[in-house]
Every structure is written in C-alpha cells, then in structure tokens.
Amino acid sequence: MTSKTEAVLDALFQPPPDWPTIGDLNLAALFDAELNEVGALAGTYDLFALLPEAFVGQSREEREGALRKIEAENPLGFATMLAHASNVYYSAPGVLQKLEQAHGYPARPPLYVGYELSAFDEALLEPQKKVAETLFREV
Amino acid sequence: MLSRRSFVASSLAASGLICASELPAKPAKTTVLVVGAGAGGAAISWRLASLGFSVTCLEQGGYEDYAKSPAADPKWELLRQREYNPDPNVRNRAEDYPIDVAKSDIHPLMYSAVGGSTIMWSCHAPRFHPSDFAIRTLDGVGDDWPIRYQDLEPFYDLNESISGVAGLNGDPAYPDSKKPRLPPLPIGLGAEKIATALNDLGWHWWPADVQVNSVAHGAGRGICNHCGPCELGCPLRAKGSTDVTYWPEALKSGAQLITNARVTKLISRGDQVLGAEFLDLNGQLREQRADVVVLAGNGIGTPRLLLLSATSEHPNGLANSSDMVGRNLMFHPVGISTGVFEDALDGYRGVTACSIASKQFCDTRAENDFTRGYMLQMLRSLGPVMTALGGYGVPQEWGRGHRARFDTTFNHTASIAVVCEDLPEPDNRVTLDAALEDSSGLPAPQIHYRVSSNSKKMLKQGRERCEEILTRAGAGEVRHIPLLQGAGFHLMGTARMGEDPKRFVTNEWGRTHDIKNLFIADGSLFTSAAAVNPTATIQALALRVGTHIAKSYV
Fold first, then answer.
1. I need a labelling partner for B240 at 20 to 30 A (CA). Which of A14, A135, B43, B141 fits?
2. Sheet holding B429-437, edge to edge
3. What CATH superfamily is the domain B4-66+84-380+412-552?
C-alpha cells in the first residue's frame, strides 16, 4: 500500500488474488480527485484523519477493524465515503472485466450494442386466459 | 427513405424550432399558446397544429442532445446519480427549478426539456381502468371524474397509435377492445419466474403496456435493443418520449416550439388570459400573446405558474377562486420488494422498470382495511454500481464478506414495485415558497405532502403479497423498501377537473372555471390518481382537450 486511500479501498473491497489490486487500477487517485470536486464528500478527509498512523502498513484484518470502529462512530460520514468508494471501484474497467468473466455482464456501457433477449412466450399466459371473470368493474 | 438522423434533423430544421433568445421581444400573436413541451404539451400541440391551428409552445428546457447520452458512457451509473438524476434538486441544471421538499414524505421527480419527463420516463403506459373514474360512486372516497373511461377510450387509441405501445390485447383487467399494440417486449428470466408464481397463486398478471418500439414504428424512430436504462433517454428513439413521437409531426404541421423559455407569469384581464411573459436564456423578458392558453407544465409546474400569476383581480392566483389550485397533490406511494435468487437472471437486459404488471389488487375489496388498491409492477435488476450501493433495498457488505455477498446478489435479483393509489387530500398541496427561488428569482414550489394511513395500509399488504410471490418464485432472500422517498414520478391532482366551480379548478374539458380561454393538459387535471402510471391518461386527456378547443374555436 502506498497511500491511506489505497489502503482504505483495499480493506473495503478486499480484491481476491486473481483480481487487479487497487494499485493496479490507480483507484486511489480517482477517489481523491473527486473528493476535491464534490462538496458532499469533503468530510471524507476528516474520517481518514481518524485512522491510526500505522494504518497503511497494517494487515487487511487490522485495517478492517479500524474502519469498523470509525463506521460505528460516524455512520453517516462513513456511508457517504463507502458510496463514493463503490462508485469508483465498480466503474473501473479492470473490475468490470472481472465481472464479465464471473457473471457474463459485458464490460461496456449499455449503448449502443444492447442485448439479446428471448421473445415473450405467450404460453405463460395460458392460465390467465382461462380465468373467466374480468378484473374491472363496469361503471 | 430518409435515415433516422437526417429525418430528425430535417424535422427540427423545418422552421418551427426556435431558441427564445432569437425571438423579437413581442412575437406575433398566436392562436394557441402551450406552456410545456412534455407528455401533455406535445400531444395537444400536435393535435391543434395538425388541425390547422396556429400553435406556439414555450419550453423552459432545450432539445435533448442524444449524442451525449450517458447510457453510452462507461460511467453511466455515476451520471445517473448526478447530472442525469431525475430529481431536479440533485441535477440542479439552469433550466430546472428547485423544489422545497422539507415538508414532503415523497420527493418529486421531473425533467426540463422538449419531451419533458418522458425523456427520463421508464415508458410504462397503462390505461386507467373504468372504475378509476368513479371512485366516489363505487367506493365512497375521493371524487368521480366528470368523464368516463369510454369518453377517453378513442383518445387512448389515438395516442397509442402515434406513440407506439408494445403489449398484448386481451388483458382481463380492461374492457375487451382492439387496442393499438406492437408485439410485447421480452419479459426476461426474472419476470418469467414471477409470472409462473402468479399463475400458481391464481393472481393476475399481463405483459406491461410499454411505449417502446418492439418493431419498427413511427418515422425516424428505431427499434429497442434491450439496452436497459430507458430512464437516461433513448438515443435509438425507440422509446416514445414526445421529442421523437409528437414533436417532429407537430413541427411539420406548423407548430412553433420555443426552447429555453421560462414562463414567469400569465397575463390576464378579467376572465380572460391574454398570453404569457417569459425569460430567455439571457434573462430578457419577452411576451407571447394568444387567443387561448394551455398549461402543460406538470402537476407541480402548472399550479406554481397559476399561483405566480396572481393579480389584483385574482389575488389568490389565476383560476383559483375555489382555493383548489395546488391542493389535492397526489403521487403514487411506492414500496419495492426484491428477491435474491440462486440463478443468474440477466436482469440488466431489457427495459428496467417494467416487464409485467399485476392488477390483482388494484380495486377495492371488502376484506381489506383500506379503500382502493395497488398495482404490482415487476422490475429488472441494477448495474454493478447500484448493486454495490444497496439499490432496491438489498444491502451489501464491505470488508471480508464483500466479494461473496456482491457475487451472490449482482445479476441474481428481481424486484416488484407496489404502486399505491393515492387519494386526494386538500392538505397535500403545492404552494409558493417564501424563501427558496429559482435562478431567475421566482419563488420555488414548496411541497406539503404526507403519506396517508390508507396508503400505508396498502403498502403493508403489498409488501406481504410480494414476499409471498417472490418466495413462491424461488427467492432465497426477500428484502423490502417500505416507502421509496425518491419516487415522486407521478404528479397529479393540483388543478382537478369537476363540475362544481367551488370544488374544482377546471371543467370536463380542462377549461378553467374562472378563466374562459385558459386550459390545462397535464396530470394536474386528474380527479383521482388510480393505481397505475399516468402518462397514457395525461396524453389521452391532452388530445381530448385539444379536440375540444379545435371544435370550440373554429
């Protein structure tokens, strides 16, 4: 870990060994850049200041423990920080590529390719068509 | 044959589309002035222009630039939370006005552009049911509409033939008729599971009526490619937003559409409206005179403008001798239940917000502890960012458990929205805010709204029904959002139609009781809210009002 932000993101998402690391993805820089642009995220610096000095060099387990302590004491601020971290992490191309491998979810935006879907199977409606009564009241 | 792009470009350049700042200070008088280019404003503008009337429409937003579509951006899920958020208070664009929601349980959503909120609309377009128009007669609550389903039926047909609605005839929730329908859209794996569960339970469902091209329909429009986030606007022009349905045809018929025009007030004298004052992008005040004025600024914008148009002759606001302008604001209170399934459901494929709908619980039942009812609307699933953020109420873990939890929920959920019929209550209302202003210094609307005990009971029962359905469908875990605060999609009732001028703002033709040449053509007109999405009814009403104006002013 080279920075507090990188160490936090790693503790939050704990990428498995076959996934790119936070450092590989350069996510700490992206995370920090937005902190300066989005006013609602400004409190994140205050949260990070509460982390122990040795945080960057700690094990994942120790870092998770430190973060859980902060979450308990500052639930709203922590939730804001976690949401920002999730936005950054799950927008990263390297993470999306792993999701494509794991879930088949294509690592691209929805447009313009779109997706294939099977046509509606009207046979599903057979039980509904057998219902004799209507569902509406005449006026 | 023109390509889609050249067709749209030629339609817009046909002369009728003008930015407000390009106009003279006092443009030539028009016969009909329409305020707002969204669902209702577009429909009525087309109707009157196609019948040969001189029509001018003032729209505070601009034309949507689909070349910048967020759905084609790798950060589309982030953009949806910010610049393309449906909440104007979050989006905060120059053409938006802020809304004071401190006293509201539900936050209104809307969009300012040609096409209005249909740009960000999830395109579910069911009709109201016959009983929805007579809730006082049938159930002793609210008020009857001054019209019946049959009065609106030909206008539903007309709207659907223009807009293009994918669906299937034969739904037992409606009178038997040959509605204009394109083939139904694919419903996806999650909805198939839910449909099977509904069949097992003996409860109604039917493919949703969706204003989306499942096949080719309409000049210059494309076919849905099931990309998913319709709410971000549809560059394929497969979704029936009115910038691609009514507006190209209205402009071809000679309508004039003035964009970036913020109407500040209506000009009136006695029981006549003379036109409107509006600001262009540069803040220059202009004036448009007209024989007839139609307001279509949505259920919040329209009452706001009427209240802003107070004069010494109309001290309580224009068309407001009844004190009913802004009152009886109705949303559809929404809860969401989500099932987590073992199977991958590919719920990111296809129209996100609707696939099938159940009307089983829409109507009043003797055994219930509430009156009227709710619709169940099936939802697909979310992208990775929104999944990580705990969207649709499925919480995520961070730390050690994160990867496993995410991987068992992402692409493994299907949801059901409980959409409740709100009843009209005078204290739920829109007023002018004493402190908050828009960027032009005009008072912002303030929303006073509390979810009723009737709606809370509906939400509770709906939640229980969803638990039953999702469990029957095979979900191993079911989560609930009891009330979605950011679900003010549907804005209704703030200038209701009815016969009594002391209790209602307009008559059955959308004409205000007080001002004889002032009409309304949006969700403000709704006498009651039903338990289904309002856009089809807004558009049918607008076509009916337009037809009446045409007959009256020939």
1. A135
2. B100-104, B443-449, B429-437
3. FAD/NAD(P)-binding domain (3.50.50.60)
* Partner-chain contact A139 B348, CB within 8 Å: no
Peptide bond before A112: cis, by omega within 30 degrees of 0?
A: yes
Complex ipTM: 0.96
Cα distances (Å, whole numbers) of residue B74 to A33, A90, A96, B226, B553: 18, 10, 10, 17, 52
User: In chain A, which residues have their Cβ closer than 8 Å to the Cβ of B387?
Assistant: 90
- The whole domain housing A84 covers 4-105
Q: Which amino acid is at B253?
A: S
**B324 within 8 A of B503, measured Cβ to Cβ:** yes
Q: Using CB atoms and an 8 Å cut-off, which of residues 88-107 of chain A contact chain B? A: 89-91, 93, 95-96, 99, 102-105
Q: Is the pLDDT of residue B11 over 60?
A: no
pLDDT tens by residue, B81-122: 999 999 999 999 999 999 999 999 999 999 999 999 999 999
The Cα of B65 is separated from the nearest Cα of chain A by a number of Å equal to: 15
Cβ contact A6:A23 at 8 Å: yes
Candidates B516, B187, B153, B168; CA nearest to B379 is B187
* Any domain includes A133: no
Question: Does residue A137 fall inside a structural domain?
Answer: no
A53 touches chain B (CB under 8 A): no
pTM of the model: 0.96
Classify residue A54: in a domain, yes or no. Answer: yes
Per DSSP, the three-state class of A94 is helix
For residue A119, tell me if it sits in a domain: no
B394 in Cβ contact with B387 (< 8 Å): yes
